[in-house]
């Protein structure tokens, strides 16, 4: 099957083998770490550490200054071509392609957000929007702490599909799941079919957080993941004590400081 993408470019045909394989291997390519302010204005004191190979690698500017360490599974769902992969690639690698290939099965990414109050490691499952992969979805949203349901603001059909995903998550997903509704491609305002208020009202009625985003220019992309991290951090119980406690004790009439296991 061939999909048209971007400026009329064709997506690559998908073989039966890749369909049967279902899931794309977690990326093993890159082991670099990049730290940058989430946004120069609003979160100037926060840093994003990009981590690959699922191995946290900390640099001094991305150190653990929060008291909670949270690992959270986050799943992206939505109609094909709405920009799910583009949003994740923008968040994890700071990249955007006009000719993004359709996802086969699902793709896996990790990313760490260091907030003042917590460090949140996201295990991100980016699902394929093509209908033939729909039956795989429960595997990815099962046990997820957060779900991002994406539609394309130039397609009413994709908004209707997003509503179906929300209903499915409400029926079958984790009841505590933090859900977001995201109207992507907000740069294509002249072709808009779903008004901002329509998305926003639906989100309000269903207790979802709402964003309009642009994977293309990065607008609201870090913000939406930051919002998820903040909410999950607020919900999570404080981490138990770690490392060593310093206590003072009087010995032979003298005051000393010593360490003992926490
Ligand atoms: N103009 C514009 N195009 C975008 C934006 N985000 C994504 N696109 C384009 O939309 C197309 C589809 O993007 P993908 O990220 O592959 O969409 P997807 O939801 O992952 O699609 P599936 O993997 O098939 O489910 C690509 O050609 C992207 O370049 C955006 O914010 N603005
Ligand atoms: Mg994709």
The low-confidence parts are: 1-66, 242-262
Strand content: 25-35%
CATH class: Alpha Beta
Number of separate structural domains: 1
> Number of helix segments?
6
Q: Tell me the span between the first and last alpha carbons.
A: 59 Å
Please tell me the CATH architecture by its name: 3-Layer(aba) Sandwich
Name every ligand kind in the structure: guanosine-5'-triphosphate, magnesium ion
Output the structural class: alpha/beta
Radius of gyration equals 21 Å
CATH superfamily: P-loop containing nucleotide triphosphate hydrolases
Largest sheet: 8 strands, mixed
**How many strand units?**
12
Shape: globular
Please give the share of residues in helix. 10-25%
Strand order of the largest sheet: 3-4-6-7-5-8-9-10
Structure notes:
The structure is a single chain. With 262 residues, the protein is α/β, with parallel strands linked by helices. The protein has one domain (3-261): 3-Layer(aba) Sandwich (Rossmann fold). Helix content is 24%, strand content 28%. It has 6 helices and 12 strands. The strands form 3 sheets. The chain has an 8-stranded mixed beta sheet, sandwiched between helices. A two-stranded antiparallel sheet has the order 1-2. The longest helix is centred in the middle third of the chain and has 17 residues, at 156-172. The termini are far apart. Bound molecules: guanosine-5'-triphosphate and magnesium ion. It holds the Pfam family Ras. InterPro entries: P-loop_NTPase, Small_GTP-bd, Small_GTPase. GO terms for molecular function: GTP binding; GTPase activity. This is Ras-related protein RHN1. Residues 1-32 are annotated as: Disordered.
